[in-house]
Amino acid sequence: MHYLTPSIRLRKTPFTQRVTETGVQAYTVYNHMLLPSYFRSVEEDYSHLKRAVQIWDVSCERQVEIRGPDAVKLLQLTTPRNLELMQNDQCYYTPIVDEAGCMLNDPVAIKLANDRFWISLADSDMLYYFKGLASGFGLNVSVFEPDVSPLAIQGPLAETLVSNVFGNEIKALKFFKHRLIRFQDQDMVIARSGWSHQGGFEIYVEGSKYGEPLWDYLFEAGQSLDVKAGCPNLIERIEAGLLSYGSDVTMADTPFEAGLSKYCDLETTTTCLATKALLKKQTPSRQIRPIEIEGPPLSPLTTYWPLNDKLGNNVGKISSAAWSPDFMTNIAIGMVDSASWGDGSQLLVESEEGKRTAIVKGKFWI
Amino acid sequence: MHYLTPSIRLRKTPFTQRVTETGVQAYTVYNHMLLPSYFRSVEEDYSHLKRAVQIWDVSCERQVEIRGPDAVKLLQLTTPRNLELMQNDQCYYTPIVDEAGCMLNDPVAIKLANDRFWISLADSDMLYYFKGLASGFGLNVSVFEPDVSPLAIQGPLAETLVSNVFGNEIKALKFFKHRLIRFQDQDMVIARSGWSHQGGFEIYVEGSKYGEPLWDYLFEAGQSLDVKAGCPNLIERIEAGLLSYGSDVTMADTPFEAGLSKYCDLETTTTCLATKALLKKQTPSRQIRPIEIEGPPLSPLTTYWPLNDKLGNNVGKISSAAWSPDFMTNIAIGMVDSASWGDGSQLLVESEEGKRTAIVKGKFWI
């Protein structure tokens, strides 16, 4: 592995000081910002995440605030997901596409009021797309990045920690709903959400100055629960089938290819710019699939691994892979052509450590 | 320094294999892509760059291709620089701004034909802004990322290398002009440009498959010139006053604050969306300045260093700094309030290693 040279351009977060003190070993860069990638090791972080509770600095999920009378109108231009029934306490996972129906991002949209959203981003400058559309369509809306940095609390003991700290009523909060909590003199949005399958919350920390105090407060309160610093975990998120924009899904893919058809309401989203294009692309010729790779643990992938059928024809590629200690196999996410995507389909993957048998699975592991 | 965890999302380039073999030690991430940050050490790379010739993988200067009858119209919406007289063999350094006149990027625009540009990007997803504007204004234009990866040849011996390889007529190419060269069976654009003050060229390598053969060809031909792999050099670019978008200049700044007023033709660029806003911002209250910091070599900065006046009032910040072996002092770039920006103005900088005297300079070092 190579070093990452620090610079202002790779933004620190309100929690970076604490993340460093807690012993982060490696970073990735996400939305021009530092995102920890492991603390002890990916495997140790993984097993701890599955049994206790972790605090994650996911500030890099930068927010675009869309505010004004045309807020819904602007957002609906960009997504085939119907926003009409979305309530002011809801979060929506939202595929965002260009006019051709190609994926630009897959954020979580948080509706704060009828005229106000936060778009919690995957790794691309959606602010620029919203700005361009707002100017071009002359919309009555302002679009900007607020001083809001998500802090995730993830793991089976997350609810215990959060309710100990912010009160038992937090237990009633349903998945992908949000409400307010108070920390010091500040109201903050908390949602039951997060990029793991272990359950948990994301606090949208409004005001950078609250970052370190809140971090310290949660660690203090979580001592008896074996709270540790963590981050989105490669193994766990593959087990859960959580897609990474830029790796598993890119601008080359439609929501249908990304397996997100349940978020596409093409009949009712006539104002989405991509609806016409997507209507023609509803039957994809390739799609995201869980894939098991046989044999001993493989090193992390650094380039796409080609998938071939028995005749040697290329039928897809692997975009994420890791050894799962719990399932005792190499687990992966890949894009597979329709002729080969059936449950149990046997393929050959060209990994950086040679050819291996790969089996397409019917569902993800957890 | 921390490790950078590899992933597909941090894209490799057509040259990454060669860059690795040549001994890159650290990377940064730029436009979702790997950009080498040093090979031997920043200091050794610096002195070699100033005496010989280096090959730089600057693929991360991703291109947005704008093609179609409305290409000029679209680009002019985004920049206060007048494009009317731009010729088909010219490159323009182009501040790009939003409607409020805030900097979104500072790319080099390469005009290939009356209806065709490549926008060679600094670190932000301008593709998204152009896409949004094109949709919103209903422009007759297509906007996409072509398979084009710039390879820079920089240093005092760059012209010798390039003319040895591609013919003596390349010597007639003027600064920020481009022409075609042929490599194998492919025409490629070459410009006299690059992110150093040492002179040189950028080849816009069209087709990833040509990356390694071209790299090998240039290294073979450059052996007698002591050609080495290099990359944009922190020390040299501060000496030359080359700004880094995301560090020295951000969306919080106007072109006037960035010191780019000579690229703002507000009287004649009435179709630029920001002209009205920029007319009110022509007299900035702060501006980019070269700054010398006294005392022994400082460690690289990882956060903005505040600049204070003698009374202890904050009057700006340092965004880039390095020790210059040639000028035997700490050189820096900072944003300074108007009352304190005069040549010779004496300030105090709060570096990560304590307070130091800082002197505002009238011009950059080279």
User: How many domain units of chain A?
Assistant: 3
Tell me the major beta sheet of chain A: 6 strands, mixed
CATH superfamily heading of the largest domain in chain A: Probable tRNA modification gtpase trme, domain 1
Class by alpha and beta content of chain A? alpha+beta
Computed over alpha carbons, the radius of gyration of chain A is: 21 Å
* Percentage of residues in DSSP E strands of chain A: 25-35%
- Which word captures the global form of chain A? globular
User: Order of strands side by side in the largest beta sheet of chain A?
Assistant: 13-14-15-12-4-16
Name the average pLDDT of chain A.
Answer: 97
Measured by residues with Cβ under 8 Å of the partner chain's Cβ, the largest interface is:
A-B, 54 and 53 residues
Note down, in words, how this protein is organized.
Two copies of one chain form a homodimer. Chain A is of the alpha+beta class and 366 residues long. The first copy, chain A, folds into three domains: 135 residues, Gyrase A, domain 2 (2-Layer Sandwich), CATH 3.30.1360.120; 82 residues, Alpha-Beta Plaits (2-Layer Sandwich), CATH 3.30.70.1400; 82 residues, Elongation Factor Tu (Ef-tu), domain 3. Helix content of chain A is 18%, strand content 32%. Chain A contains eight helices and 22 strands. A six-stranded mixed sheet of chain A has the order 13-14-15-12-4-16, sandwiched between helices. In chain A, strands 17-20-19-18-21-22 form a six-stranded antiparallel barrel. A five-stranded antiparallel sheet of chain A has the order 6-9-10-5-11, with helices on one face. In chain A, a hairpin with a 2-residue loop joins strand 21 and strand 22. The longest helix of chain A is centred in the middle third of the chain and has 12 residues. The first copy, chain A, is globular and about 65 Å long. Chains A and B meet through strand 1, strand 2 and helix 4 of A and strand 1, strand 2 and helix 4 of B. Strand 2 of chain A pairs parallel with strand 1 of chain B.
